[in-house]
Write a structure and sequence with these properties.
This protein has 92 residues and is of the alpha+beta class. 33% of the residues lie in helices and 39% in strands. It has a single domain (2-91), classed as Double Stranded RNA Binding Domain. Strands 1, 2, 3, 4 and 5 form a five-stranded antiparallel β-sheet that branches. A hairpin with a 2-residue loop joins strand 4 and strand 5. The longest helix has 19 residues, at 68-86. The relative contact order is 0.19.
Length: 92
């Protein structure tokens, strides 16, 4: 049955957890580490309201961490770094 969960993405701990966004330089960062073989892949959704619409960038890294809290912190850190380096260019 676990292969069905992997295939369709259902029932995972990360998908069940609702996260509050972290505001950073006008952007909203939603840390969303994905569960992969019992570890957590760094990932975040970055949003920005601009011109009457919400622009979204999905950040996914190859890095895997064993602890969910560490993965959340790393996801926030990486998202801030991307915002600092690229700003609104991430939406291109």
């Amino acid at each position: 049955m676990s292969w069905l969960k992997k295939l369709f993405g259902g029932g995972g701990e990360a998908s069940a957890a609702q996260v509050e966004p972290v505001e950073y330089k006008g952007f909203r960062i939603y840390p969303e580490p994905a569960v992969v073989d019992g570890q957590y892949r760094i990932g975040a959704r970055i949003e920005l309201d601009s011109g009457g619409e919400t622009r979204v960038h999905e950040l996914i890294r190859a890095d895997l961490l064993r602890d969910r809290e560490d993965a959340v912190e790393a996801s926030l850190r990486k998202a801030r770094q991307v915002i600092d380096e690229q700003g609104e260019k991430i939406f291109r």
